[in-house]
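Hi R.,

Quick one: here's the NTF2 domain-containing protein sequence you asked about.
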Amino acid sequence: MSGPVLPPISTWTESHISDIYTATTTADFNTAFDNFLAENAHITVNGQHMSRDQYKELLLQQKTDELNARMTFNGTVTVPGDQGALVGGSVGVFFTAEITTHIIKISTISASLNVQIVTEKVHEPAGQHLPPIFTDPRRVAVLNEVLLDQPKTGPTPGVTSSSS
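And here's the predicted structure, written out as tokens:
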């Protein structure tokens, strides 16, 4: 019997970034964030070191009052780790997240994200009975991001633009 099939780390990275940005509930966001980032991750954003909690707060600020998000990945580079690209390694992605809020404001986040993915020991909940639920043990241990958040206001109802 074979185990679960793991996606390559490039696919894993894009999927987890999408999960974070498209989550519209606190519970979904927390799950996506925890499944992506290791507890002791080393994080740098725009040259500034920050804690895991500070990075979480930064992401939550970008998503304030989010209605939905549209993700576009513009390129991915993968360097497999010593044990292959399914287990760990380095991934660089360029992406844009266009976030629409409940008050029709659109924020466009453009980022270049470089991560080092490692396999961690995942602790199953106490008292869990058979069959065990597979939890992907991969997490980001090092994250370096260059990020630009460009808030825009959507069109105002009843106002049209004209060009001369």
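The chain has three helices and six strands.

Cheers,
M.
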